[in-house]
UniProtKB/TrEMBL annotation:
GO terms for molecular function: 3-dehydroquinate dehydratase activity; shikimate 3-dehydrogenase (NADP+) activity. InterPro entries: Aldolase_TIM (IPR013785), Aminoacid_DH-like_N_sf (IPR046346), DHquinase_I (IPR001381), NAD(P)-bd_dom_sf (IPR036291), SDH_C (IPR041121), Shikimate_DH-bd_N (IPR013708), Shikimate_DH_fam (IPR022893). PANTHER family: BIFUNCTIONAL 3-DEHYDROQUINATE DEHYDRATASE_SHIKIMATE DEHYDROGENASE, CHLOROPLASTIC-LIKE ISOFORM X1, SHIKIMATE DEHYDROGENASE. NCBIfam families: aroD (TIGR01093). Residues 485-515 form the SDH C-terminal domain. This is Shikimate dehydrogenase substrate binding N-terminal domain-containing protein. Residues 243-323 form the Shikimate dehydrogenase substrate binding N-terminal domain. GO terms for biological process: chorismate biosynthetic process; shikimate metabolic process. CDD domains: DHQase_I, NAD_bind_Shikimate_DH. Gene3D superfamilies: Aldolase class I, Leucine Dehydrogenase, chain A, domain 1, NAD(P)-binding Rossmann-like Domain.
């Protein structure tokens, strides 16, 4: 096997390779190394017309980093459907040729593992794996499975499940932190993403990452593991922060919060959390390790009931976008940083255009007609902020009763969303979109009638993916001042960072990140 290293208890980044030709597999091995992988998992069952001796010699002779050889049969979720004897012979051959790791399914491990270990004495390791159908088993059943796997005397064990809910990951973390041998355990799919990202915190041996241009659901990219999440910096003391949302794939929070946490030398990680059931989530993740959350669509209002205490501004708004677990007693405290984040962005844009409002020395919004589209959590924050500045509110929502409820809270007017297509605003009014309309991938939609955009002095869009939405492009063409949701995102994130860490956020540093990466 040469001088190429083997896995230790410290986490290593692994790229799964599923090329259909051995030539492409060799190319991908070198690409994976260049993108930050420590080890690659070579799936022999994906190679078309696989020739065991010829192809394995090519792979092992040309490997630039350690290789895990996997030949996954159909009955364990793979693609191989041929003779089982031939499959096992190929794994024996890989071992003989000097593969760094051989992955054996639990079903066949007991009959092969001693043979491989006795035959190959110069450092090759055996991984015993189990791919589970359905939801992640209970802690008790996982413990029985792990005991069975450890009894094979595997060097490393690997357990993979299909996550139906993010709360199942807590069982994965329990497995990792209590296993007596190096372990790999994760769940596939978007709900299982945190099982990869938090693997180093709980003692996992491997974290998987996909190569550029080859995204795999539930896997972070190799680049994000190295650059955004810096998995080599995560340890058992790392505090976990995350975005509680559904969906979460659009979020750029990790690109901002993780570098900023490292910039101030705070041992924390910020991860996307695809949550289906708020009550289950907060019941299961009650550990002090889970120190705080951003709250996104569609939970900003619903999450209020799960907070032990709510800050007066958030209570007035009726929506929470930030939760902190108070260290002294573990209670969840809810805050809202959307309100000031959005309103100050709008005010500053008006002031930058040297707009003067003679009726108020405090805010250029005083007395202005302010149209809010969407009466959810973000809309409530914007409306309450605008009301506090003396604006006159009109609320549009697809749910008229929800619009009326918000309108009563801000002494405004409520209308159904459909009537917005025919609504004629006052000249110089403000328009704020607080719906997901225009968010990637449905980027061609706008919430208001295009022909009315010229009547607005300023148009704000809370959507920040893409940065320049179609609404903002059309408003800009119509002559309105435009404010991107990126500006609101930055300002509310600064407020969140202060609450997460108890420190003053490095505002200039955070703005530089947003300008460079958003």
């Amino acid at each position: 096997m040469g001088s190429v290293g083997v896995l230790t208890n410290s986490v290593m980044v692994c790229a799964p390779l599923m090329a259909q030709s051995v030539e492409q597999m060799v190319i991908d091995m070198h690409s994976a190394k260049a993108q930050g992988a420590d080890v690659v998992e070579v799936r022999l069952d994906c190679i078309s017309k696989f020739q065991p001796r010829q192809d394995l010699e090519t792979i092992i002779r040309n490997k630039p980093l350690p290789v895990i050889i996997v030949y996954r049969p159909k009955w364990e979720g793979g693609q191989y459907e041929g003779d089982e004897h031939r499959r096992l012979e190929a794994l024996r051959l890989a071992n003989d040729l000097g593969a760094d790791y051989i992955d054996l399914e639990l079903k066949v491990a007991s009959e092969l593992i001693w043979e491989l270990k006795n035959k190959h004495q110069n450092g090759g390791k055996v991984i015993v794996s189990s791919y589970l159908n359905g939801a992640t088993p209970s802690k008790e059943n996982l413990s029985h499975l792990v005991a069975t796997m450890q009894a094979t005397e595997a060097d490393i064990i690997k357990v993979v499940s299909n996550a139906d809910d993010i709360t199942e990951m807590e069982r994965i973390f329990h497995l990792l932190s209590h296993c007596e041998v190096p372990a790999v355990a994760y769940s596939v799919g978007e709900r299982g993403l945190i099982s990869q990202l938090l693997c180093p915190k709980f003692g996992g041996a491997l974290v998987y990452g996909s190569m550029e241009g080859n995204s795999i659901p539930g896997l972070p990219t190799l680049d994000s593991l190295r650059e955004a999440y810096k998995v080599d910096c995560i340890n058992s003391d790392t505090k976990v922060f995350g975005l509680v949302s559904k969906p979460v794939g659009h979020s750029k929070g990790p690109l901002l919060h993780n570098p900023t946490l490292r910039h101030v030398n705070f041992n924390g990680i910020y991860v996307p959390m695809f949550v289906d059931d708020l009550k289950k989530f907060f019941d299961v993740y009650a550990s002090p390790d889970f120190a705080g959350y951003s709250v996104g669509f569609p939970y900003k209002e619903a999450v209020v009931q799960f907070c032990d205490e709510v800050h007066p501004l958030a209570k007035c708004i009726g929506a929470v976008n930030t939760i902190i677990r108070r260290p002294c007693d573990g209670k969840l405290i809810g805050y809202n940083t959307d309100c000031e984040g959005s309103i100050t962005a709008i005010e500053d844009a008006l002031r930058d255009q040297k707009y003067v409002n003679g009726r108020s020395l405090n805010s250029p919004l005083a007395g202005k007609q302010f149209v809010v589209v969407g009466a959810g959590g973000a809309g409530r924050a914007i409306a309450v902020g605008a009301k506090s500045r003396g604006a006159r509110l009109i609320i549009f929502d697809i749910d008229l009763e929800r619009a009326k409820s918000l309108a009563r809270a801000v002494s405004g007017e409520a209308q159904h969303f459909e009537s917005l297509a025919h609504f004629q605003p006052e000249n110089g009014a403000i328009l704020a979109n607080a719906t997901p309309i225009g968010m990637h991938p449905s980027t061609d939609r706008i919430p208001a009638a295009e022909e009315t955009l010229g009547n607005y002095q300023l148009v704000f869009d809370a959507v920040y993916t893409p940065r320049k939405t179609r609404l903002l492009k059309d408003a800009d063409a119509a002559g309105a001042i435009t404010v991107s949701g990126v500006e609101m995102f930055l300002r509310q994130a600064i407020g969140q960072f202060n609450l997460f860490t108890g420190r003053e956020a490095p505002k200039d540093f955070m703005r530089e990140i947003v300008l460079a990466k958003f």
